[in-house]
Amino acid sequence: MRGRSYTPSPPRGGYGRRRRSPSPRRKYAARDDRDYPTSLLVRNLRHDCRPEDLRRPFGQFGPLKDIYLPRDYYTGQPRGFGFIQYVDPADAAEAKYQMDGQILLGRELTVVFAEENRKKPADMRARDRVRGHSYDRRRSPRSPRYSRSSPRLHARDRSRSRGYSPSPRRREYSRRASRERSYSRSPAHNGSRSRSRSPIRGRARSPNATYSREPSRDSR
DNA sequence: GTTGAGCGTT
User: Which processes are annotated in GO (biological process) (predicted)?
Assistant: First the structure.
């Protein structure tokens, strides 16, 4: 009997049973009424805040599925907000209600439901262009040289905390693996020729002994 | 089957 009495505490006037009102936009699009959002957007996070810091306070309400703190792609600096996904939407609702306005590390958190739509790299790229100020892709007035910090460098840091919940056990595993290669998840694929998308110059990766099967040697 | 450049950063 786990009669855990959830107190979803619906936001102002409840979630609304799909009102016929001409809402300009459904708050939680792509979700049915019975399917409440499980992701929360936590705002006003301290820049020092790490996923682990959030896990404890937010984990009180239920199992967390994921925690992710977006960072600036170029600078790698935390953006001050994060996403917390719950397994159970009821927990998410509860957490939102309880944590909204709470103080974490001296900052008052703002917790709201997150949209389900994740942003893709392609979107960010487009956005960057728009934000960049009439970006003339031909040649920008200012060379966006962000040679200072590269996401890749942060990738190293990411190896430790990874940003999202790593299984403790897995970490052990990863620790060993992170010795040599395994750096394949950087924005810069540095494939061989396309090095345009990434702000940083991907270091020329060794060909890594491609398994080029000799065309004429495989006889059977 | 997933996504880690996630919307809301001062």
Answer: mRNA processing; RNA splicing
